[in-house]
Amino acid sequence: MNQRERQPEAMTQEPARGTIRLTAAQALVRYLVALRTDANDTLFGGVFAIFGHGNVAGIGEALYRHRDVLPTYRAHNEQAMAHSAIAYAKAHMRRRMMAVTTSIGPGATNLVTAAALAHVNRLPVLLLPGDIFVSRAPDPVLQQVEDFHDGGLSANDTLKPVSRYFDRIVHPAQLLSALPRAIRVLTDAAMCGPVTLALPQDVQAMAYDYPTSFFEPRVVEFHAPAAVAHEIERAAQSLRAAKRPLIVSGGGVLYSGAADALRRFAERHGVPVAETQAGKGALAWDHPLLLGGVGVTGALSANEAAAEADCILAVGTRLQDFTTGSNALFSRARLISINANAFDAIKGNGVEVQADARMALETLGAALAEWRAPLQWTTDAQRRAQGWRDTVARVTNTMPDERLPNEAEVIGAVQRSSARSVHDDIVVCAAGTLPADLEKFWRTSTPGGYHMEYGYSCMGYEIAGGLGAKLARPGREVIVMVGDGSYLMMNSELATSVMLGAKLIVVLLDNRGFACINRLQQACGGAPFNNLIDDCWQGPHGAPHIDFAMHSRSMGALAERVSNLNELEAAMQRARSADRSYLISIDTDPGRPSNEGGCWWEVAVPEVSERDAVRSARATYEAALALRAKVEKGEQR
């Protein structure tokens, strides 16, 4: 499909003639209101706003005028509200989105981390930070960052490297070109990511005679490249020659609506499927050909198949190091990469198919006709898949006696609390050990039931992301699983969820520090240092004992602390029946991870050290590098 804007049939009318006088801010908001995904739904589901110096007078007044059709949501932290907006788009599979507006200084720079997150994850969000006066008359203004070699720079320039499209609106007429460009990027499968329109506060307030046709309601069609015949044929040739093919399903499968196409392709051709963090949920957890997650946080079944595969069909994945085992897991296999983005499709020096995932799978399937993978390979994959499901059942149903539970056991208790046979809760998470165990052990039957931000692995995304997911899917139970470290980094949008009536269930696993990095530190030969609270520098009063339930109640949520898994399951029932956000805190073991699955991940270890443990870890690291080199040369599997 080509990107274009058209009027839906119900809205067809003669183009309005003449002009309308509006401020730049009023014109921007009115343009956003006019955009539709169909005759009924708006493209933008709302605007998160924290008003301040540089946006309260201009865009604030414009948003007030359209508050009934474009809701404005007040948040408590700019980074967090941008995370919520990004999560909203992710939960809508990039088919609806939100905008975010901030003040000109700290509000704008607070967006940088969120913009980077959206950039890495290829997710749309429209950032509308205020900016300094174009006139320079009141120079410098409050919150202005003065650069000593370029007077045209402002705090907003920090957003340039993490924006897919950046524009500073220095005249109201500029919106006539900047806004269509922005929408094209936001709705283009290849370019999709954050867009920043910096809005100088004097320009926001300037009036201009805009053509009325610019604001006519229009339906936005989403652009995605169609498969090219010769690329499909090369991919088909590689697959026909394969004896042990494996599909790696990425986030692009979900965003293109290709879940059914993936299932039909896998079943018709007998090709097993492994999934990335972003791609989890395209196939139901109990599909016979689903091997589970692949890579560092992956399942044993998927990683064994990946190591043996002679052809990898990577669909809609960035092929980051957690998926590829730092390019060691399937480096011997021929790679076919289907991706809407050419930058991603050419990774790994494989066969490139730059195309929308759904269209490419359908076209490739037709080209393969009746070809099927060897029966023994398909049968072995089904056996492995069932073996992994048995492992998941065993690990998640373990009830520790006197020991503190670990993450996998908590996940099992959370899922047992659901009375539904189809697992349609939405779990939200982002960083730490939980992403590894959730990819391995969370069972979901529907696309979107697994909402993981692991492209940027941004601590603090969890609760804000849960809020965005709930706003997008109000009929689903949204369960945020978060560690104490991430909670302490960013928890303010729990208060926003109460204010908006967007109920979340937050399960907080308290291991008293950054346990994931503590284990990585020791695996690299380091001494436990500055990660767990007990290993940190402390003053005379020692570390605080944080009552997370009390803290959550102070923000208006319901909350309780439980002591074991039985109490957790009972608390989950109370949380499910509650009328507002509900936090449950449980202590977990920081030193007892689940050991199932996983593969090597390259983390550089110091080449010299006075410590024996570091020297030993360095020797292990060098041996792994040597093994990868041999595999790449074809000397060893």
The gyration radius over C-alpha positions equals 25 Å
Portion in strands: 15-25%
CATH superfamily label of the largest domain: Thiamin diphosphate (ThDP)-binding fold, Pyr/PP domains
Give the % helix. Answer: 25-40%
Shape: globular
Number of domains: 3
- Low-pLDDT windows of residues: 1-16
Mean pLDDT: 93
Main sheet makeup: 6 strands, parallel
Strand order of the largest sheet: 5-4-6-7-9-8
Structural class: alpha/beta
- Architecture (CATH level 2) name of the largest domain: 3-Layer(aba) Sandwich
- Termini separation comes to 42 Å
Number of helices: 24
Describe the structure.
Belongs to the TPP enzyme family. Keywords: Hydrolase, Thiamine pyrophosphate. InterPro entries: DHS-like_NAD/FAD-binding_dom (IPR029035), Myo_inos_IolD (IPR030817), THDP-binding (IPR029061), Thiamin_PyroP_enz_cen_dom (IPR012000), Thiamin_PyroP_enz_TPP-bd_dom (IPR012001), TPP-bd_CS (IPR000399), TPP_enz (IPR045229), TPP_enzyme_TPP-bd (IPR011766). Its EC number is 3.7.1.22. This protein is an alpha/beta fold. 37% of the residues lie in helices and 17% in strands. The strands form five sheets. The chain has a six-stranded parallel β-sheet with strand order 5-4-6-7-9-8, sandwiched between helices. Helix 3 (78-91) runs parallel beside helix 5, helix 10 (259-269) packs parallel to helix 14 and helix 16 crosses helix 17. The longest helix has 22 residues, at 375-396. The chain is globular, with a radius of gyration of 25 Å.
